[in-house]
Design brief:
It is a single chain. This protein is of the alpha+beta class and 196 residues long. The chain has one domain (5-188): Alpha-Beta Complex (Peptide Deformylase), CATH 3.90.45.10. It is 26% helix and 29% strand. A five-stranded antiparallel beta sheet has the order 2-3-4-7-8, with helices on both faces. The chain is globular, with a radius of gyration of 16 Å. The mean pLDDT is 94.
Length: 196
């Protein structure tokens, strides 16, 4: 089932999400619904807060990036078929010299900005079967993981912009929160009065 994606301005996007256990109700169904929601919106990552749930879970499928001709063959191989669920994730370490890359977000449609992130991340997490892992990712994979991880920490990519860029985007962000935007996927807007 395709779930509505929560738009910028909803308080759930600002909450630090809570860990879950394997007893979380209908977890398999939620994971399946989140994959379907993400693919329907043409995303490469989706975090539980983006579907209104303040829990520490996100998913990543970077396969669409693998077709980018500007990437090296090694990078394309790394991204092709990379599909994972991260539960109760915790970033252990971020390394390297920060680099800019143009990011967007399903909760903030039609806004893309250059964001600085470290090129390497070590993260501990549980997979969907609650098996523990600690792995290091780099390049675009690290970036997508860091972006989704920020969601479970209550952080949006727009928070990482300069104060000038934030001021310039303010009215566009307000329009998104009021639903004054056209998107081709289901969204839930925080500032639309019910019954309108």
């Amino acid at each position: 089932m395709i779930l509505p994606i929560v738009a910028y301005g909803d308080p759930v996007l600002r909450k630090k999400a809570k860990d879950i256990t394997s007893e979380y109700p209908k977890l398999d169904e939620l994971i399946a619904n989140m994959w379907e929601t993400m693919y329907n919106a043409h995303g490469v990552g989706l975090a539980a807060p983006q579907v209104g749930l303040p829990i520490r879970m996100f998913m990543v499928d970077t396969t669409p990036f693998a077709d980018d001709d500007e990437l090296t063959e090694v990078e394309q191989k790394q991204l092709d078929g990379f599909k994972k669920v991260f539960i109760n994730a915790k970033i252990e370490e971020e390394n390297g010299k920060e680099w800019d890359f143009n990011e967007g977000c399903l909760s903030i449609p039609d806004i893309r900005e250059d964001v600085k992130r470290k090129p390497e991340v070590t993260i501990s997490y549980l997979d969907e079967d609650f098996n523990p892992h600690t792995k290091t990712f780099d390049g675009l994979l690290a970036r997508v993981i860091q972006h989704e991880y920020d969601h479970i920490e209550g952080i949006l990519f727009t928070d990482k912009l300069s104060s000038l860029r934030k001021r310039l985007l303010k009215s566009r962000l307000e329009k998104i929160s009021k639903g004054k935007i056209n998107v081709d996927y289901r969204m839930r807007f925080p500032n639309i009065k019910k019954g309108r």
